[in-house]
Amino acid sequence: MEHKAGFVNIIGNPNVGKSTLMNAFIGEKLSIITSKAQTTRHRILGIVNGDDFQVVLSDTPGIIKPAYELQESMMGFVKSAFEDADVLIYMVEIGERALKDEAFFSKISNSKIPVLLLLNKIDASNQEVLEEQVQYWAAKVPTAEIYPISALENFNVPEVFERIVELLPVSPAYYPKDQLTDKPERFFVNECVREKILIHYKKEIPYSVEVVTEEFFEDDDIIRMRSIIMVERETQKGIIIGHKGSALKRVGVEARKDLEKFFGKQVHIELYVKVNKNWRSNSQQLRRFGYNNK
Questions:
Q1: Does 35 share its domain with 141?
Q2: What distance in Å separates the CA atoms of residue 15 and residue 86, rounded to the nearest whole number?
Q3: Same structural domain for residues 141 and 260?
Q4: How confident is the model at residue 237 (pLDDT cuts 50, 70, 90)?
């Protein structure tokens, strides 16, 4: 039996549902999902294995015009997605007309590798609008195969996955067959805490936050972890902590519940808040937090 394996990279504008799609493909919550733009900051690999295939999925940050160094680094992850893809998924939503970066759109239109254009969130539309949208994108990216989907409702997602497997090149597996992702456990702790901050805090606060897990000790029946929430200013520190620590406690309780599901055992997590001035524009700090892709 021939074995297929390859890299399938998912790109699109912010908030289009890329993380929801990747998690649907994998059956696990690897990428954090919120209604806020720029939720995904890193390139996250999720690995789906079958007897005769391995699909290495890559969820990248949403395409934006960078305003500071962190965002420049985030776009570096997106650029790298073009370099090793065997199949490119370009995800748009009903009503969307173009990418925020024309150079990226040109790369997609002229791609030599198979492009699957997924028209997401069709559950929020109707047949007439859908048909118009399919015609529009067929003219815009004539080389792409177009699939209307709902990542949230799992509509047409299995069919897209079957097509991905068909398009993979013949190759041995790139990763061990029992591996789910390329990221270490602490990465998912950081992302889980950051997701709760994105959900519960407003304005600039979530975008000024980075999370670092400094301790991760696993016993047979419990994992003990200590994570630091970095902010850029003292005022932000106060907002994160909240009155008598109530806001920070809520983040910790919700993160613990999700982490217990993820790891399948009891979790004890301690959260602390520190000020790390202007870390989003500091090259040294960005490298420390894993944004060293440029």
A1: yes
A2: 24
A3: no
A4: very high
CA dihedral 285, 186, 248, 29 (to 10 degrees): 120
pLDDT digits (tens, 9 = 90+) for 50-93: 889 999 888 765 544 544 455 555 455 556 656 678 998 888 88
CATH number, residue 220: 3.30.300.20
User: What residue numbers bound the domain in which 242 lies?
Assistant: 185-288
Q: Structure pTM?
A: 0.62
Distances in Å between the Cα of 205 and the Cα atoms of 60, 156, 181, 239, 287 are 22, 36, 29, 8, 21
Distance CA 9, CA 85 (A): 6
Rounded distance between C-alpha atoms, residue 113 and residue 86, angstroms: 6
Burial class (CB in 10 A: 0-12, 13-18, 19+), 259: buried
Residue 45, domain member (yes or no): yes
Per residue in 181-230, pLDDT tens? 777 778 788 888 988 888 888 877 777 888 888 898 988 889 999 999 99
Domain check: are 41 and 107 in the same one? yes
Within 13 Å of residue 283, how many CA atoms lie on the same side as its CB? 2
CA pair distance 10, 157, nearest whole angstrom:
14
Which pair of structure tokens corresponds to residue 254?
């919700």
Under DSSP, is residue 168 helix (H, G, I), strand (E, B) or coil?
Answer: coil
State whether residue 209 is helix, strand or coil. Answer: coil
134 CB neighbour count, 10 Å cutoff:
16
Return the beta strands (E) in 13-135 as ranges.
44-50, 53-59, 87-93, 115-120
* Angle between helices 157-167 and 18-26 in degrees, nearest 10: 80
Lookup: tokens for 85: 């893809």
Q: Are 136 and 189 within one domain? A: no
Residues 112 and 215 in one domain: no
